[in-house]
Amino acid sequence: MSITIALSKGRIYDETVPLLAAAGIAVTEDIEKSRKLIFETNQSHVRVVLVRASDVPVYVEYGGADLGVAGLDSLIEHGGQGLYQPLDLRIARCRISVAVRNGFDYAHAVKQGARLRIATKYPEIARNFFAAKGVHVDMIKLYGSMELAPLTGMADAIVDLVSTGNTLRANDLVEVEPIMDISSRLIVNQASLKLKQAPLRAIIDAFASAVSKN
Ligand code: PRT
Ligand code: MG
């Protein structure tokens, strides 16, 4: 029974490699040196596919992959339907926050009940956050370089992932409110879990034990 694992290039791939190793799985090619999207592993029945970070939940939902590793940010935006989420892998950790241009009086704007223009790649997370606070927002959906939105006057604030804070500082933005902590989750297609229970359980258990030792 073959198993397909969906990962995204970059930090998620890098931090998942040791977890795969704990499950006895090693990708046999250097993915950075290849333009391929499908990779064989040392186990003939396991392969890895590389997709956009935000597409990992989609591949797993529709059975393009049996399991995958997705940031909680991508998972919330996707909605999580059709996905079994057995494990917080505690990798690719960061937080999602509200940030504004240095000098913008965010507290005042919020207190005054002003309508805030929010630019973000994460409209679902942003909408829920501001709705819970009773703040009215206009949402501008972006796919990257959110930092630019307040600098050009297109938005009052952004909702984006923050790790060291260097990107915000480099663009004269300040973090004004954390929304939630983010880490990556193991996600599994619910039908696969029934049809391929033994091999998937073996991978989930190996990941769980590796995570508990981290
Ligand atoms: O580019 P694409 O649309 O495919 O997806 P992506 O950019 O989300 O992918 P990728 O590989 O960059 O991130 C994958 C996952 O890693 C995200 O979904 C998060 O769950 C997690 N993660 C952890 C991060 C960060 N830390 C992070 N710092 N993802 C992005 N960033 C970016 C952030 O958007 C900002 O531009 O790094 C910048 C901030 O970093 P600092 O250190 O300057 O604060
Ligand atoms: Mg990226």
Description:
This protein is of the alpha/beta class and 214 residues long. The protein is built from 9 helices and 11 strands. It has 2 domains: 3-92 and 183-213, Periplasmic binding protein-like II (D-Maltodextrin-Binding Protein, domain 2), CATH 3.40.190.10; 94-182, 3-Layer(aba) Sandwich (D-Maltodextrin-Binding Protein, domain 2), CATH 3.40.190. Helices cover 35% and strands 30% of the residues. A 6-stranded mixed beta sheet has the order 2-3-1-4-11-5. A 5-stranded mixed beta sheet has the order 8-7-9-6-10. α1 (11-22) crosses α9.
- CATH class of the largest domain equals Alpha Beta
- Overall mean pLDDT stands at 97
What is the count of distinct domains?
Answer: 2
Order of helices and strands: EHEEHEHEEHEHEHEHEEHH
In total, how many beta strands? 11
Cα-atom radius of gyration: 19 Å
Q: In the CATH hierarchy, what is the architecture of the largest domain at level 2? A: 3-Layer(aba) Sandwich
Number of helices: 9
Determine the CATH topology of the largest domain.
D-Maltodextrin-Binding Protein, domain 2
Low-confidence stretches: none
Bound molecules: phosphoribosyl ATP, magnesium ion
Distance between the termini: 30 Å
What structural category do the secondary elements indicate?
Answer: alpha/beta
What is the fold's blueprint, element by element?
Layout lengths: L2 E5 L3 H12 L15 E3 L5 E5 L5 H6 L5 E5 H7 L4 E6 L5 E8 L4 H6 L4 E5 L2 H11 L3 E5 L6 H4 L5 E6 L3 H5 L2 E10 L1 E6 H6 L1 H17 L1
Question: What is shown here, in short?
Answer:
It is built from nine helices and eleven strands.
